[in-house]
Amino acid sequence: MDFSKELLGQVTLAKGGQARISLDKEDRGLTVAASLQWDGGSEERRARGADLDLYTLFVPADAAVRSADHAPGHVFPQIRRGLFRGKNRDEVKALEAELATRTDAGQALYYKNLGSLKEPPYMQLSGDAKVPGEETISIVCPDQQGYALICAYSAVGNGAGSFRSYGARVVVTDGIGSTVTVPLYNDTNTSYWVAIAFVDFTDPHGVSIGHVERYSKRFTEKRPVLHTDGTVLMDAGPVEFKRR
Question: Which helix (H) or strand (E) covers residue 149, if one does?
């Protein structure tokens, strides 16, 4: 079967859902676009501020590996919430130390590093939209891509509020008939970061997109980390502080 000729149409992911855009990874004329879209929510919500930022954490194909224990897109439970059931305190501390010291982090494109379509990483951010609207990461040369984690950051100047109240969502499309929308389903008023969608270019038949929706802990400025095996750790990256 020629998967490159199958069009997905328009799909909206459920919580934890996944969809595949089938494509020819050797097609140099193809552009996959992943957009962070937000309307700012209600008039009152927009008046308080609605400056979101798209961050694409990525691992190129030549650096992408597979974990023996976790599938790409796996988000490690946040230890502070006591989600490691069945483990004693010493085991939890050991796991926390192991995760915190990993050095195989991927790279990031955002408003300070827009990338390039003509040279690695073959990804480019459209720019910094400081009002409700859209920011888009364009991705070419799909055979050169490994994993990408699409995240949103809410500037401190926005004040307290939920990403969902901004109307935030991620839309991934191949531009030729396949579009996957990744919505947010939960409210959180104390997080500056949310990891929304995981994009896996190592899928042998195209690109798979998964719903993630994981939030940072209360008022932390540390961004998420995408590891080279496609696993994700929240609240472990460098601090990104931006005022509107």
Answer: strand 145-154
Whether the ω angle into residue 121 lies within 30 degrees of 0, i.e. cis, is: yes
Task: Give Cβ neighbours of residue 211 (< 8 Å, ≥ 6 apart).
Answer: 13, 14, 15, 16, 17, 18, 182, 183, 196, 197
**What pLDDT digit, counting tens, does each position of 200-211 carry?**
999 998 999 999
Tally Cβ neighbours within 10 Å of residue 79: 16
d(Cα 115, Cα 32) in Å, to the nearest integer?
15
Residue holding tokens 């954490």?
A: 57
Q: Are strands 145-154 and 18-22 parallel, antiparallel or unpaired?
A: unpaired
Q: Which two tokens stand for residue 23?
A: 């494509």
Please report, as a single letter, which amino acid is at residue 66: R
- Report the candidate in 38, 220, 228, 204 with the shortest Cα–Cα distance to residue 148: 228
Q: Which amino acid is at 106?
A: G
SS3 (DSSP) at 82? coil
Cα distances (Å, whole numbers) of residue 138 to 86, 141, 235? 43, 10, 26
Taking 50 as the threshold, does the pLDDT of residue 83 lie above it?
no
CA dist., res. 155 & res. 111, Å (int) = 12
Phi, psi (degrees; rounded to nearest 5) at 127: 140, -170
